[in-house]
Amino acid sequence: MKHRGYNNYFKGFLSDFRIEKRAEKVLKDMQKIGNTVVNKYCSTFRDKKAAYELFRNPSFTEMELIDAITAKCKPDQRTGHLLCIQDTTEINYTKHIGRIGKEDADIGPVTKDDNAGYFCHPMLVIDARQRLPIGLSSIQLWNRSWDKKNRHEREYQKLNIEDKESYRWIKSAQQSQELLPQSSQLTIIGDREADIYEELARVPNERTHLLIRSSVNRKLYGQDIKLFDLLASQPIEQEYELPIQHNKKRKKRLAKMSLKYAKVKIAKPKDKTGKPSDDPKWVEMWAIEAREFPETVPEKEDPILWRLLTTHQISNSHDALQCIEWYSTRWVIEELFRVLKSKGMQVESSQLETGSALKKQLILALQVALTTMTLKMAYDKNHVAKANILFSLPEIEFIQVLNKTVEGDTQKQKNPFDIGTIAYCSWVLGRLSGWSGYASQPRPGYISFKRGLDIFKIKYEGYLLAMSQLNNNKLKE
Ligand SMILES: [Mn+2]
Questions:
Q1: Which of 300, 323, 357 lies at the terminal end of a domain, its last residue?
Q2: How far does the centroid of ligand 1 lie from the alpha carbon of residue 420, in Å?
Q3: What separation in angstroms does the CA of 386 have from each of 6, 393, 395, 401, 423?
Q4: For the whole model, what pTM was predicted?
């Protein structure tokens, strides 16, 4: 399969090659500095001016940028199963509304009615076997308008799904089905917000599974009992222990869990729109319940309780635990949002002047954040993942050349990973950034990988230039 390589996202996607080159440069600068504040990632006045002009330029659209980024989401042909995780985050510009102005059509009220911003809903694709991100298969950005206020006033219940914001969950799945190769199997993962009957009815097909957190105690077709009660009445299939990390809501503990599951027929909800959809009267799914036993629940805490709905067949408790484990990869998209907002990239502090410019920049920032995370995850967790998820073949070869220059003489200073893996490349990039390379030293963080990537790119461009000179000379001889 042909990879376009690390330095080439936009070629053939934007209105002209100068804009493509500029977009490439801005993406690279953001990667280098790890920030979306123009004054921080541009070092010269000329670059700053050019970055502002790029995002202000009306001759290319948000959609063209999204097409360019999602086109990079090309799994390896051998990849069988892809976990496609979707979620929504709010990008808040309340602090900047004085500069942007309330009349800007690309900014509107967000979750808090008096706050300003827009919403971002990406689909993040992860190779189920290697457990590494492959790319983004869909990105939706939208904002509400100031005059339409809240759900109540919009008579939300009466809208058809196609006119609701929640349609994004279905659209994102459909766009991913179109983009990703027919040979791969997809599991579309979403949190409680994704518990939408139309999604359950329309998204699954021969190669597409759903795996979502159940939110509504739904009616079951032809039965008096509801979903949650039916699940609770099932026999315990397995007991297991689950380590819980300390966080705002939870005490650290080893939770004792029970596992139940059942095959269910979810009934189509009553129509409130006056124009009933063609969706079937029921859909068949598997429901899973993982519930903490009261004995390990700390005082003033609720038991851990997960209810999942999936089209994956659950034949035994191993299948059910596998689904729970796949669902837990949702942390990666939450981490992506964290990296975008707080951990350095600061998208909500960008000082671009219009909503449209901010949205265009966010599309680039999503890819920058994901690339950096992928490098770090490969290094931390998965030492055998193949480097061609991120790099083209010539780039991988060049990293092997660079490795010779950064390895030391002793065994402890040698690259411990296999050639051709991301971990191997990450080790080289970490070393390029100035990290010692000793296993005893703290592992390189996001910033080191960003710096390493940039140094690599500069060297790689020099190497390409040298090679082309060499070839020219050979032709003359
Ligand atoms: Mn969510």
A1: 357
A2: 35
A3: 15, 11, 13, 18, 8
A4: 0.83
